[in-house]
Amino acid sequence: MRSRSHPFRAATALLALGLAAAVAPPAAAAPPTAAPAGSPAATLRQYAADTWRSMAAMVDPGTGLAADNVGGDLDPADRAGYTSPTNVGAYLWSTVAARETGLVSAGQARDRIARTLATLGRLEVHEPSGMYYNWYDPATGAKLTTWPVDGSAVHPFLSSVDNGWLATALTVVRQAVPELAGRADALLRRMDFGYYYDPAQRQIRGGFWVEPPPGCSLAGNYRTGPDVFYTCHHYGAFNTEPRIASYLGIAAGQIPPEHYFGTYRTFDPEGCDWAWTEQRAVGQWRTYLGVRVFEGAYRYRGLQLVPSWGGSMFEALMVPLFVPEERWGPRSWAVNHPAYVRAQIEHGLREAGYGYWGFSPANDPDGGYREYGVDQLGMDGPGYTSDQERTSVDPGYGECRPAQPPPSGYGRGVVTPHASFLALRYAPDDALRNLANLRRDFDAYGPGGFYDSVDVTTGRVSKRYLALDQGMAMAALGNALAHDVLRRPFAQGPMQQRVAPLMRMEEFSLPRGGAQR
Questions:
Q1: What region holds the Glycoamylase-like domain (predicted)?
Q2: What is the per-residue DSSP string for 340-405?
Q3: pLDDT of 462-485, one tens digit each?
């Protein structure tokens, strides 16, 4: 995908046909057309224009690096003094989406991206792996060793998942901006995801430090060069956002294909070893590429699905903004993704009765940052919860852990608008209705699009814009309005050749044909 991607195409067909259109292979693009006022496509275009305004406001004009967040009035003086590889990646793919939806010209997009790539080429990296550190100063590009908010020490870390999202953006740029393909490719080629892969566990580590940090770390090196200091944990859950790093490593030939089957769909339900997890899974064992896999699933209010780790929307649905998982996995992801969305809707509208839905990590309306989710959709026992009171459900674990009475009610529910954008492909009517209701009923929309989160009980809103969350919204909008522009780089080439066959092999323990309830 070396040529320039296609121009704007209205999303009316996508929204009319729902999931069937969403999972169909891309068709040839039509010339730009004006969407009728008040139509779904016009609404999406407005959301895209405003969301892009917030992304652009986060960017330092000298370095082209997007800050982690900015205040709700988009004042440059209120930009955060730190950024990450994910933040930078979100800005890069958002710029491509903005070009394809007519929000910036091809020349403006090229200039913006060129500035960012030039800075990326100058940033300090871990030279043996080509990986980026987790925090930089967006105004200077300096690696942070002191946290700008409170002056505390930063122990420079190299995250597998954060580097995965930057590599994702570079892959998009390499395809979508041919004038800059060589520069993006040079940065990509030096990134070696094999540095994170532990062959003994068939899993990737969370990341590593170059110097030993306080707390737990393990000295070693899965590649060559001096020892680094790995996190003591692996990313062991399958349906979580770190799988993007796994896919990139497999596609590049840096990680063996059997890694795809080395993480847990759920844990083995036999015995009580995993009784700390959310529930005892149902399913059966299967073997792929010599790896024995328990194809486990959870049951939730008439649905059956493969859980994420904590139960949040972005864990499950950020990756398919780029990788066509449901096309390549007709007996796995094609069934699971829609079921996961239905489960989030079920929780928000019926189980918790908030009247709104969509739960994912975000800024806390009460201050700070917090994870939100539906705890019953996560493997972790406590899970991520949907309200400020952390109300959870404990269905028990057979004879190992007795079930607890269900909660009498839920507290202050916090809904995160970016979760609805993640659901747009799988439940377009529901997603647009939910967003419209949030905008109608709360002060949830500002000059840069939807604010980060809404306490739907008190009406309190977190009036900040986060690069990650706005970047997810922009990716979903770009795909809807410009015919999967951000998916096309991954629908061919090494990702298609090496990762798609693995997805085609697998069958989740889910109802055949996708029929649930």
A1: 296-491
A2: HHHHHHHIIIIIS--S-----SEE-TTSSEE----GGGBSSSS---SBTT-------BTBTSPPPP
A3: 999 999 999 999 999 999 999 999
